[in-house]
Amino acid sequence: MINTNIRFNGFYNSLHSDIIDDAIESYYTDDNGLFNYDSISDNIDYKTIHKDYIEVFTDDFKSWIKDNYNLDIDFKDLTLISPRYYNYSTDVINCDISNKDNTSLMTTFKRDKNFISYLENETTSRSGFMSHYTFEEALSNKDDILSDYILNYLVNKFESDNLFMLDSYDFIYQSLH
């Protein structure tokens, strides 16, 4: 197994926090159309909501990868890593993928011109940004880092295409009881 990260947009001022907020508001809006967050805030278990959310998110992400790249990547042992402060980074989904899945990712994306261009940009230091890896180091998978770059590339495409739209808030509603 390879430990890697999915650097999605996180739960701070993002599409994902909006989806959760909308579900909470629709669940707790009374018959008169009124919603008072302060009166229900103690009833909300964000830790459980976020845990359930990243499971749904990675399932949708996995399906999107399968549909768009014909790769069947299985994300295991999902853990949400949240920064203490959101001024430098946002939430990350830490997970494991099999060596076989990792090899499939690397084989596919080392030949993808768009990914190679993305990787060159992401590994180029510039004013205000110092890359931890050179392009050559990342491409040769130093410290098993290539899967992180590939998953970053894919999740950016996945989220920018606005393909992550939950059909149901049921999993959020269940944690509100």
Structural topology:
Blueprint: E1 2-6, H1 15-28, H2 37-40, H3 46-69, E2 76-81, E3 92-97, H4 99-109, H5 113-122, H6 135-139, H7 146-160, H8 170-175
Please identify the structural class as seen in this structure: mainly alpha
Helix content: 40-55%
Helix-strand sequence? EHHHEEHHHHH
Give the end-to-end Cα distance, rounded to a whole number of Å. 36 Å
Rounded mean pLDDT score? 89
Number of discrete helical segments: 8
Please mark out the parts with pLDDT under 50 across 5 or more consecutive residues, or reply none. none
Q: How many whole angstroms does the radius of gyration measure?
A: 18 Å
Main attributes of the structure:
8 helices; 3-stranded antiparallel beta sheet; about 10% strand; mainly alpha; 3 strands; about 180 residues
Question: What does the model show?
Answer:
This protein has 177 residues and is mainly α. It is built from eight helices and three strands. A three-stranded antiparallel sheet has the order 1-3-2. The longest helix has 24 residues, at 46-69.
Q: Concise description?
A:
By secondary structure, the chain is mainly alpha-helical. It has helices spanning 15-28, 37-40, 46-69, 99-109, 113-122, 135-139, 146-160, 170-175; strands at residues 2-6, 76-81, 92-97.
